[in-house]
Amino acid sequence: MRKKEGTAQLNHKTVQRLMQEMGLKSKTRRKRYNAYRGTESDTAPNILQRDFKAEQPNQKWVTDVTEFNVAGQRVYLSPLIDLYNQEVIAYRIKKSAHLPLVTEMLDDALDKLSEDEKPVLHSDQGWQYRQKSIRERLEKKGLKQSMSRKGNCLDNAVAENFFGHLKAEMYHGEAFKDADDLIDQVKDYIEYYNTKRIKLKLNGLSPVEYRTQAMAAG
Questions:
Q1: What is the DSSP track for 30-98?
Q2: How many helices (H) and strands (E) in the chain?
Q3: Tens digits of per-residue pLDDT, 54-105?
């Protein structure tokens, strides 16, 4: 292709220098945390099949892990979301992605179940969810495990959407003193998300308000 007369081309290093001098940054797609390791052994079938509607609490649960970075310090959030009202009913946030991040969260959620509640637990194929200790916990309570197809984030869209809202509303573009400051603010956000942040799909109520109103009417 011929270069148009009267136009000048800038070397990419010149553009980078000018952007730095002007305090400009290009918007790039942030790398998504990927917890997949190893083979597809010990995976569960995709029982949920993108059916994200639940008729009652503790019928369908979804979970995932996301990563934050504050001044080179990584922080990991593992929430468990009830598809009935998209409430975060249990979570853990730590500076390590080791297995207790997920097992402690799951133990909290399982402790809240009545004897006759047997929700399906859906996740991706992350290494944490393929551990024997996770399967044993679920089997003991009579719960079925469901997993997304490998590399298909749409199979766990509700968890992905929650992370998107959280990061857009309190993380991206914000400054934190350190990892502990971020952890405190994530905890505050989850409290706000559950009790005050209204959702049109919940008739303009917060997740907790929706559940409370439904239980009172039922």
A1: PPPP----S-STT-----STT----SSTTSEEEE--EEEEETTEEEEEEEEEETTTTEEEEEEEES--S
A2: 6, 6
A3: 999 999 999 999 999 999 999 999 999 999 999 999 999 999 999 999 999 9
Domain ranges of the chain: 60-217
| CA nearest to 48, candidates 150, 147, 127, 163 | 147
Structure tokens of 18? 């000018």
What's the CA gap between 187 and 177, in Å, rounded?
16
CATH code given to domain 60-217:
3.30.420.10
Instruction: Enumerate residues 6+ apart whose C-beta is below 8 A from 124.
Output: 35, 36, 64, 147, 148, 153, 155, 156
What is the spatial distance between Cα 179 and Cα 69, in angstroms, rounded to a whole number?
8
Q: Which two tokens stand for residue 166?
A: 């959280």
